[in-house]
Amino acid sequence: MAKDTKERILAAALEMFSQKGYEGTNIRELSASLGLVKSGIYKHYESKEAIWNALLDRMIAYYGERFGSPERLPPVPDSPEEFVVMTMRMAGFTIRDEQIVKTRKVLTLEQFRDERARELATKHFLTGLTEMFTPIFAGMMDKGLLRRDDPAMLAFAYTTPISALIRLCDREPEKTEEAVSRIEAFSRHFVMIHGAK
Amino acid sequence: MAKDTKERILAAALEMFSQKGYEGTNIRELSASLGLVKSGIYKHYESKEAIWNALLDRMIAYYGERFGSPERLPPVPDSPEEFVVMTMRMAGFTIRDEQIVKTRKVLTLEQFRDERARELATKHFLTGLTEMFTPIFAGMMDKGLLRRDDPAMLAFAYTTPISALIRLCDREPEKTEEAVSRIEAFSRHFVMIHGAK
DNA sequence: TTGACAAGTGACCTTTCGTTCGCTATAATA
DNA sequence: TATTATAGCGAACGAAAGGTCACTTGTCAA
């Protein structure tokens, strides 16, 4: 019947892994959440670990498509205000998109156990955002919106505080509103400080 | 014999929980690492969960003693260079102290499962450092070392990038050297940007 | 219509989990 | 010295884990 069961298994696995971690997830519950009995899962994946690996493949591929390619970069803003708006749009998306939230949680939980999860975690939490904003800041310096400085250093100084607040939302979703407004305040403060005289 | 077995159990639990998480840790291995058979543990703690709770009590108490009290604050530095040195001393300590590294890892792994771990994680990763540096920055502004600004905002902007690099060390210890030098570079850049004209 | 195959079921297997219990050795107490 | 609590041992327990297998069912091509 359902040809998309393989897909649904991955989605359910992402959900459960993100809440209870790999070890804390059991196949019975996972299959029950899909309306099947546990042995049914083994028609689609040969083991729990195979599900994990397939899920990681997905996450890695998705990250590559979505954030990996340089041509996907947002355009260099034309004003400080536009820069803040762009930031808020990106942050709002990454905070609210369920898929991405769950992915970050899984990476958080499995980063010490799985080598590939560790690498992807570093991209999600550190290098990815920095690499994304470095050319933006370089472009803003060219346009005279920011004082001349090391764009990579600025990107690091800009994205890591925002990342910290995003992770706060993952951990304590009830603080999302507060976190979003803090991101905006930080963003405005940042362009003010680094803005061209 | 060993009256300190109860202590050693907590130490071994911190070690294992920090590597494999609560679910991934089993009592057999835990007791074996202490040179006893698994049932021996139950002479000291009534269950695995009791060990977890005792460990969390410890971590919370330790954090309160170490970082919670205002009188424990480092003195306000007298020069930018002194500020950088102070930062490096604190960062080096928190990166290399095994106890604290393991504590951060445990909190990372259990923050979505345990309410108390969640709260302590937010202190460790976000609010604690910010609250620590806010009065320092206020003092530096009073001394004319930093331009007048919102000290809490500066503390947030200063500590979260450092925290991101500390967490990188937790995840990928082989990058410790690189991270430490990036912390120093960031610190110097920060005092340069925010320094009084 | 029939044959083949993919998808799902339910019983069952082995292993491992956390936990319990009865026993022993030791060391402090009365 | 006799007693008693403590710390550890080793076998055993039930529950739950991941996984296997023979079987049924529904779909579709030949």
Tell me what the structure shows:
Two copies of one chain form a homodimer. Chain A has helices spanning 5-24, 27-32, 38-41, 48-68, 80-96, 98-110, 115-142, 151-171, 176-194. Chain A contains nine helices and no strands. The first copy, chain A, starts with a helix and ends with a helix. The first copy, chain A, has two domains: 1-66, Homeodomain-like (Arc Repressor Mutant, subunit A), CATH 1.10.10.60; 68-197, Tetracycline Repressor, domain 2. In chain A, helix 1 packs parallel to helix 6 (98-110) and helix 6 (98-110) crosses helix 7 (115-142). The first copy, chain A, is mainly α and 197 residues long. The interface between A and B is large, with 38 and 38 residues. Chain A binds a DNA duplex (30 and 30 nucleotides) through helix 3.
Helix content of chain A: over 70%
Tell me the CATH architecture of the largest domain in chain A: Orthogonal Bundle
Morphology call of chain A: elongated
Regions of chain A with pLDDT < 50 over 5+ consecutive residues? none
What is shown here, in short?
The first copy, chain A, contains 9 helices and no strands.
Primary descriptors:
mainly alpha, DNA-binding, elongated, 197 residues, Arc Repressor Mutant, subunit A, Tetracycline Repressor, domain 2
Describe the secondary structure blueprint for this structure.
The structure is a homodimer of 197-residue chains.
Chain A (H helix, E strand, L loop, with lengths): L4 H20 L2 H6 L5 H4 L6 H21 L11 H17 L1 H13 L4 H28 L8 H21 L4 H19 L3
Chain A binds a DNA duplex (30 and 30 nucleotides) through helix 3.
